[in-house]
Amino acid sequence: MIVFLLMTCALLVVIFALHWKCLPLVFRTPVATVLRRASLAFLVLTILGLVLGPLVWQDLTGLPGVLLRIAAIGAVVQVLLVLLTCFGWLFRRLAGLTGPVHVDYGRRRLLRHAAAYPLLALVGGLYGGLYEKDAQVVREHFLPVRDLPADLRGLRLAQLSDVHLGWFFSLEDYRGLLERTVAGAPDALVLTGDIFDDDALNGRAIALTAQYAARLPLGIWYVYGNHEHRRDLAAIEAALKETDIHLLVNEAQVVCGAERPLVFAGVDYPAARGDAFTEERQAYAAQAFASVPPDAVTVLLAHHPEAIDDGAAHGAALTLTGHTHGCQFGFLGVPLLPFFKYNRGFVRVGGSLGYVHSGNGSWFPCRIGCPPEIAYFTLRRA
């Protein structure tokens, strides 16, 4: 947690520095000076809130949650203003407008419609932080499987991932998400990690999840993400044992099927780093697939998207993953921050399909061009 806070504070300082440099390019000097001071005050208050907030407020719902959202939206507005200013500067260079920026006419030619920049940044920040972050979309997918027997045709799975219960996703939000997901009439619900992310809420959230198992003919299936490992994992596991939720930790279970069994295999999140991460990930997959019948239709559940490679290596028909949040920022379906090998949506590796879920919540409460999703997968004969 300390490392996460340090990284967050460092990122905020970088954003502030860029914002500080850009303000005089958009506003006249007196206004830019005032906004610079406001930006500095915002930075100091945000960092103090991140560091001291959890000590002052044990419950981060209500007013603390509102303040956190305001801070997040403010940071996004700053980033958008920096990006718009950079685009304006690039346009100026390409258009050959090379006059000095400290002269008024040069500034106007640099950012001819500069008044629109802060407005666009504000609109973008408010849209991403107040609307799209919570605008769950439904995506329907069909999965072709070779030689799929009749009793598995039309079988329907729902996937949720990366809820990040806590600061920006309340228990009531989670209840609404589960209700909407089950209303889509899936046969099974799979949860691919980073669901239970608040020790104060996890027990109640697990009990709430279990209430929906009776409405799903094939039950609820769950694998850990990295955030569960940062919480009281023993308490999460103990709570799960009191329910009908199927926890898969480097193992596989037959779900249904007479002619060919449908099998869910699930892997834990590797704790290693570097090359050891790949070795541990592959070892987890090998352990999970050890008991899978050779003729099974197998769906691998994992949190990290690189498990898609492991699913393909072991002949899984489909690997369902999360972790990336779809990168949270995109344009026309393309992730703008592609930090991972697989970032969003479907991936084909050999004869196997993988899917990277865009997530249902977020640890940073803003999405633009990448809404949270409820994903359904219907099996059909190839």
Summarize it.
This protein is α/β, with parallel strands linked by helices. It folds into two domains: 130 residues; 244 residues, 4-Layer Sandwich (Purple Acid Phosphatase, chain A, domain 2). The protein contains eleven helices and 14 strands.
How would you describe this protein?
By secondary structure, the protein is an alpha/beta fold. The chain folds into 2 domains: 2-131; 138-381, 4-Layer Sandwich (Purple Acid Phosphatase, chain A, domain 2), CATH 3.60.21.10. It has 11 helices and 14 strands. It has helices at residues 2-26, 29-56, 63-95, 104-110, 116-131, 171-183, 199-210, 226-230, 233-241, 275-289, 307-313; strands at residues 137-145, 156-160, 188-192, 220-223, 246-247, 251-256, 262-266, 297-301, 318-321, 330-331, 334-335, 345-349, 352-356, 373-381. Strands 1-14-2-3-4-5 form a 6-stranded mixed beta sheet. A 6-stranded mixed beta sheet has the order 6-7-8-9-13-12. A two-stranded antiparallel sheet has the order 10-11. Helix 2 runs antiparallel to helix 3 (63-95). It starts with a helix and ends with a strand. Mean pLDDT is 88; it is low at 99-103 and 108-112.
